[in-house]
Amino acid sequence: MEQLFMNTPFIIIIFIFLLSLFILSKSTDYLTDSAILISKSLGISDIIIGATVVSLGTSLPEFATTISALISGSNDLALGNSLGSIITNTSLILSLGILYGSIPVSKKSASNVVITFLGLIGLYLASLFNNSLIPRVLGYTLLIALPLYLLQSFNNNNSTETIEQNKSLKEKLSFDKLLMLFIKVIISGLIVALSSSFLVATVQVSASRVGISEAIISATVVALGTSLPELSTVISSAKKGYGGLAFGNLVGASLMNLLFVLGTAITFSKTPITVPKSFLIFHFPIAMVIFLYLLFSIYNPKKHVLTKKDGAFLIIIYILYISYNLLTK
């Protein structure tokens, strides 16, 4: 795929990059919406759908990009996209949502923050003491933890009351409508795969021409692009007083990026993933600082809620993150 753009004018490459990013986001939305309708027709509760289908759907752009990067042998791009999305979600996107209203933090969301924080520490220490290589066994561990996490989500919300309530809310669809939804899921999935391939190819060509590493581009520009669709949702939820739900979705998406996306990247990469020096020095530490601050804010007995002060701190963190990446190649 990369060979297609070797002699293409740079302005055309930028246009294809932006178009691929847009199509990737939109096709992911269509796929997720169709999957939600199918789930509802099968009688699955909204809470469980949110914990599984929606969580997986929000990480689908990063997953598709990561798979495309692995196929093309670009491990740096796969790592940068996953870690960059985690940082972007929990700093920029979250901070902008907080500016529209305080965000309460539920017990489940708090536990997900803890799990993600511990996972980041594990990845950092493993690569730090293994010559910058992430052991493949760590990828197996993350992928094993994924179904355990999803199963816990089911068990926590699959109460008798929820089941009975859901039976009355079950949306029965005709066979024709269900068939069309399945077809839409398949077509959307194919478009996701194709657009992510174009996205990865344009990043690779751009990185070689500009002289910036693929890891840096994917951790900033690509990560921001794949996270923007969640921005409107977070702001809208915060305005309507559902900030806690928005926070839960963002943390859930970050956890999916860790378990699902990074777990897949580490496990199925052709060669062990080498963590760039800049990631060991800055990217991983700043991600851990963000989650450490969130934990402090959440478990402070007088707070247990994220306020505008926390939002201001997180936006400063994101500005520092972007500034560092602009100054280093």
Proportion in β-strands: under 5%
| Biggest sheet layout | 2 strands, antiparallel
Number of strands: 2
The backbone outline, from C-alpha atoms, is globular
Q: Extract low-pLDDT stretches.
A: 159-169
Tell me the Rg in angstroms: 20 Å
Describe the structure.
- Helix content is 81%, strand content 1%.
- With 329 residues, it is an all-alpha fold.
- The longest helix is centred in the middle third of the chain and has 36 residues.
Architecture blueprint of SSEs:
Elements: H1 10-41, H2 46-58, H3 60-71, H4 75-98, E1 103-104, H5 107-128, H6 136-157, H7 160-169, H8 175-210, H9 214-239, H10 243-268, H11 277-299, E2 305-306, H12 308-327
Antiparallel strand pairs: 1-2
Helix pairs in contact: 1-2, 1-8, 1-9, 2-6, 2-10, 3-4, 3-8, 3-10, 4-9, 4-10, 4-11, 4-12, 5-10, 5-11, 6-10, 9-10, 11-12
Brief digest:
Residues 159-169 have low confidence and may be disordered. Helix 3 packs parallel to helix 10 (243-268).
